[in-house]
Design a protein that fits this description.
innate immunity; 18 helices; globular; Leucine-rich repeat, LRR (right-handed beta-alpha superhelix); single chain; receptor; signal; binds 2-acetamido-2-deoxy-beta-D-glucopyranose; 17-stranded parallel sheet; Rossmann fold; about 1000 residues; alpha/beta; membrane; Leu-rich_rpt
Length: about 1000
Amino acid sequence: MTNRSHQLLSVTVVLAAVQLISGYSFNNCIEDPFSNQQSFNCIRRKEKNMPAIIQDLPRYAINLTISINPIWNITNNSFVGLPNLQYLKIDHNHIRIIDTFAFKDLYQLKSLNMSFNYISELDPFVFQDLRNLTFLSLTNNYLKQLPEGIFSTLLNLNTLIMRQNQMTNFSGIADAVSHLMNLRILDLCFNKLTSLSHLNVSLPKSLTTLYICRNNLFTLGCKQSFLGFIQVLDLSYNPRLHTMAFKGLDLRHVNYLRLRSTSVKVVEFLNISNIRASHVDFSGTGLNNDDLLIELCKLLKRKVKRIPKLGLGINGIENLTNYTLYYCPTITGTLDLSHNNLKSTRCLTFLNKHKYIKSINVEHNHLASLQSCKTQNMVYLKNVEELSYRYNRILSVDSDAFHYTPNVKTLKLNINSIAFLHCKALKGLIRLETLRLDNNLLTDLLKCHFEDNYNLKILNLRNNRISVIFNGTFLSLRNLTTLDLGGNKITYFQPSGLDGLKSLSKFYLDGNNLKQIDTSLHCVFQDTLTVLDLQSNQIRFLNEEISSPFINLSKLSDLKLDGQRPHGLTVLPHTFFRGLHSLKSLYLTNNNIYYLAPDAFDDLTGLRFLTLDNCCVGVTQLQPGVFKNLRNVTKLIVENMGIQNVSKEVFGNLTQLRTLQLNRNVMQSIHVDALESLPNLHYLDIRNTPLSCTCKNSLLQNWTVKNSHVQVVYLYNLLCPHDAKLKFYNFDTKVCYIDLGEYIFLSTAVVILLFTVIPLLYVKLYWKMKYGYYVFRSWFSEQWRILSEKEENCKYDAFISYNSSNEQWVMEQLMPNLEGNGSSFKLCLHHRDFELGRDIVDNIVSAVYSSRKTICVVSRNFLRSEWCSLEIQLASYRLFDEHRDVLLLVFLEEISERQVSSYHRMRKVMLKKTYLQWPGSDCTNPTQAQELFWNQLRRAMRSGSRLETEEKCSEASKEEETGNVETDENYYLLP
Ligand SMILES: *[C@@H]1O[C@H](CO)[C@@H](O)[C@H](O)[C@H]1NC(C)=O
Ligand SMILES: *[C@@H]1O[C@H](CO)[C@@H](O)[C@H](O)[C@H]1NC(C)=O
Ligand SMILES: *[C@@H]1O[C@H](CO)[C@@H](O)[C@H](O)[C@H]1NC(C)=O
């Protein structure tokens, strides 16, 4: 290569690079649209090369996440272009090698997370520049040891997490952190440490929390004062760690010690250690019988009078007698009995000495029922505020089951099998504020259940089997703010089923079987309701005549109506959302809505977030003005709605819009002025749309690449729909800008040439050409016939493509004449037969391919909206690629050649035989002519790949032929 070509090459490379970064879109990263241009996520890119991923990020980036990529090394100076980074997360990649100067210049970095990689070695100088680092995680790597001096400059480090590595040498770790005067938390769980022996170093005084769980510790082997400043010490799951390892060790400052699953004998341990006995968690220390527990209690009692917390979980305890805890010091806080084998609580009589206890945890045991506790020698635990029986096997709860804790505020009975809740089970619990009954088998709620619980604020009944809410069930719950009834089988509320809920603010009813929205809703919750979740019920409307069920809900801010089963909302009455002036979020996804009225959202002036993802049936025509009052919306999701047309008239009023998700729609072009009318737009997602790489998008291409404020998600990966090798951002637009002079010159030249050549050829070659034409024609029709014989088995006879303005004709004329009326064709209509939840484009493709024919109903509106061109393209594709002609055009109006777009003109030249003209009502003999039209259409549909011509059948048409009709013999044209 010469010098000059070298130069040229580098100039081109530079130009290409400049073009890549001049706009506001990124190759492999997405800027969080609500992060004030500071957060970037580069996730799940198939890119191995770190520089390629981050090269186009702006200098001002502060947060950066690079996750789940096949990157395996970080090269020197990778981040020098991002000197302002503060939070860097490089997790779940394949990183093995980090070069010495990989993090050069990251002086501002506060947090570095490199968890879940394959790092086995670190260079001693790799963190050198990270002087401001406070958080470092190396979780789940293959580190065996730390090189000397690795953290020497990280004087601000506060938290160091090295869980799940292969470390064996504690001495090296202690050495590496000993000078970190700000280190507070060190996590070394899941390593292979066998002891804590260390050379002449000590841990920094600041270090108060040390986790060394799940190692292989045998001894501790450290100097007496080594753990002198530790406050939280986790040594659990070191099965070989024994009591004597603690001999002489100063644990004075420890206020929480975990010893579960070690070989430590707690009684012995308490005798030799200077730890405050009340600061040991006795969970998982093998205290499974009365003798051991009584011995422990007596010992504890000798050391302390009161104990704030007694942890006895995971001990295999099967039974607690009245003496078990009798000798214990007074428990003033929490008793943890979780993960034992208790079958009964025996009305908590084992707590008869512990009147000051505040919280009791009996989760994960084998309790099968909670019996009535209104007995003679019952305990009375007035201070208990929290009681948890979660994760048991409780089937029934008897009357007065909680008589012993009259002042309980939080009661957790969730995740059991409660099928029977006695009417008086919760009797007397007047202070109860939170009641968890979710994930049980309750079927009926009665008026008596909550009679006494008038201070209840949160009631969770999710995932039970409740089917009806009876009158007065919640009548006394006047302070309830949150009611969760999701995941039940509720079909209706009795008329006063919701009475009494005077303070209700959040009401969850998702996943039930409601068929309509109760009209009592708005009477009951006028000024209180803020959240209403009706997702995934069976609500459906069949006509527009519905008054808004939300009319008085003036405070409602969140409304979820998505995914009504199995048919979707179907009709969205245009007055449905009347009065919801405070609404901030509205969810309408997956609903099969037939038509979005242009005034449906008119009252939602406070709306911030709207998602219509796959809300509608097939192809939706968003009406101009449908968003006209949504001036506060910042995020709009209109994915997968079959949108063909993105215009200023529809989107123009969304002046606060920041994020617009238009992906998975069918528009082939977008007018730039529609996008420019959104002054605050910052994030535009147009992935998976058939935006064509043609001149009509040349302005759009220019805008996406050059504009300086709108991020087009993964712009540089958008492909051209017709040629996957071409990219949208750089398809050739030169031809679109050929200048006029050149154009005139070229066309004149061509005309002159034709005028000279054609007469010559005509004279010389006339017969040869004619002969050739006939040979070709006969070959062609032969091929056609062969192909048409092997008709495939199709799901539909025809897929009908039409514009919504012709819907009436399709419904009233086409459908009855083809599906009924003696001819039983199976038609595919988008509003009826498109599969819910699927991409519109996929739906169209599958409709064209699973139908024998595609019938396009052509009118002026149809041509204007350019609709159907996708279907026509697909059908033409079948013609060229499979030699199977599937397209039938039905003209509803007289349309002159000139008005017909290029696709149709092409068709007209190719196959003149596939046209039918609908005889309007203004012709001489409409009934007869229409009769004939239907006959011909049916015949065309029945025929193979070609319309057979039979002269005698078109007699009726011949009679009425007028002058302006084309005289092509094969052209079915009725007046
Ligand atoms: C950056 O990440 C941190 C930690 O996740 C978060 O607290 C902070 O809000 C983020 N900053 C921005 C601008 O998103
Ligand atoms: C690091 O990765 C890049 C890109 O994958 C590669 O070109 C380079 O040779 C690698 N460097 C080392 C030292 O392995
Ligand atoms: C650490 O961060 C602070 C605040 O962001 C900054 O002022 C300081 O310059 C940084 N330190 C270094 C060594 O750059």
